[in-house]
Amino acid sequence: MLTTLLSQAGVPCSAAANVGEALTMLEKTVFQAVISDLRMGATSGLELLREVRAHFPRLAFLMATGVDDVRVGVQAMKLGADDYLLKPFDIDVVLASLQRALERKQLEREVENYRQHLEEMVCQRTQQLQAAMTELEHSHSATLEALGSAIDLRDGPTAGHSRRVLLYSVKIAEAIGGMEDQLKTLGMGAWLHDIGKLAIPDSILLKPGALNEQERQIMERHVELGYDLVKGIPFLADAAGIILAHHERHNGSGYPRGLRGKDIPMFARIFAVVDSFDAMTSDRPFRSALPVHTARSVVDAGRGELFDPETVDAFFAVGEDAWKLISADSQTTSTHKIICGNGLTLTSARALTSQVPHLEKVAN
Ligand SMILES: [Fe+2]
């Protein structure tokens, strides 16, 4: 009867005798709405409702009930029906209810489309942002590379020093632990620690003999000059503290502020050990490199005096093999690979060491 009424009202429709038949029709043909009797042959219209909601969520669904079943109609709405129709049918009421349900579904579709569009837009914007970040990191890498090259050019005899202290500082920070999120800062600070030397006159920086008192004072200013140079550059600002404090010593004998013990930033304490060790094990114009075991004894002797005890313990925990690998590698690998290998990948020690395959074994 309903099929006839709806067809007469210009609404094309088909009839199904039971739930199974209805589902088969829905799978084969595109419909916009289902009007189901509460009793569909041997099964309940509620069963059809559950199936439709599970497999055809965008279909409008109206449940037809008798006056005695109004409660069930309400229950059907709780289960996802858009409305219920009371029998006997009033075609005007049926059409109005159908119209409301279809409009509601149309609105749901528009909201869903809008949500999907938003998700696509967010995804697109995220990709653009990632591309911009990558570009920025490349730009940072190029800046660091240029600054490192400038330091090397000025301070030729110590070539490879910045690279070794970068890698070794990270190894020691790893051994101490708890600084994984800041290794990039440590790496950049170690890499640029002597950037202030760019402003030191050649006559002092490259003087073959010992410096007099006045020259020494000028030379020591490289920490503050470096700090001032770097602190205003946002992506290097965190590393500026290491540059300023890299000549501080545990017993307060360092410069520029004569800080003691834990007043010295942690990264600067690590760097002090590594910097001194690398200086001892490198050739200089006025002396040959000390053997590694001798330099290690000097570090040990400085525990609690020149050097932070915890850092010295980590230094010995890392071991001599790691140092030998870093030292040997710096003879053959360009600094560019380390500092810029995958963009600026100083975010973790693993990222650093993984760029030098045999160091990876040590890290593990
Ligand atoms: Fe220095």
Could you characterize what this model shows?
There is one protein chain. This protein folds into two domains: 2-116, Rossmann fold (3-Layer(aba) Sandwich), CATH 3.40.50; 155-363, Orthogonal Bundle (Hypothetical protein af1432), CATH 1.10.3210. The protein is mainly α. Helix content is 61%, strand content 5%. It is built from 18 helices and five strands. The strands form two sheets. It has a three-stranded parallel β-sheet. A two-stranded antiparallel sheet has the order 2-3. The structure holds fe (ii) ion (FE2). The site of fe (ii) ion has 5 residues, from loops. Residues 193-194, 222, 246-247 line the site of fe (ii) ion.
Shape: rod-shaped
According to CATH, the fold-level topology of the largest domain is Hypothetical protein af1432
Mean pLDDT: 85
SS field, number of helical segments: 18
Main sheet overview: 3 strands, parallel
Brief synopsis:
The chain is mainly alpha-helical and 364 residues long. Helix content is 61%, strand content 5%. α6 runs antiparallel to α7 and α6 (161-176) runs antiparallel to α15 (320-332).
From the structure above, extract its key features.
364 residues; Rossmann fold; Hypothetical protein af1432; two-stranded antiparallel sheet; disordered C terminus; binds fe (ii) ion
SSE arrangement:
Blueprint: H1 2-8, H2 19-28, E1 33-37, E2 39-40, E3 43-44, H3 45-55, E4 60-65, H4 70-78, E5 83-86, H5 91-154, H6 161-176, H7 183-191, H8 202-205, H9 213-220, H10 222-230, H11 237-245, H12 266-280, H13 292-301, H14 309-318, H15 320-332, H16 335-340, H17 349-353, H18 357-363
Parallel strand pairs: 1-4, 4-5
Antiparallel strand pairs: 2-3
Helix pairs in contact: 2-3, 6-7, 6-12, 6-14, 6-15, 7-11, 10-11, 11-12, 12-13, 15-18
The structure holds fe (ii) ion (FE2).
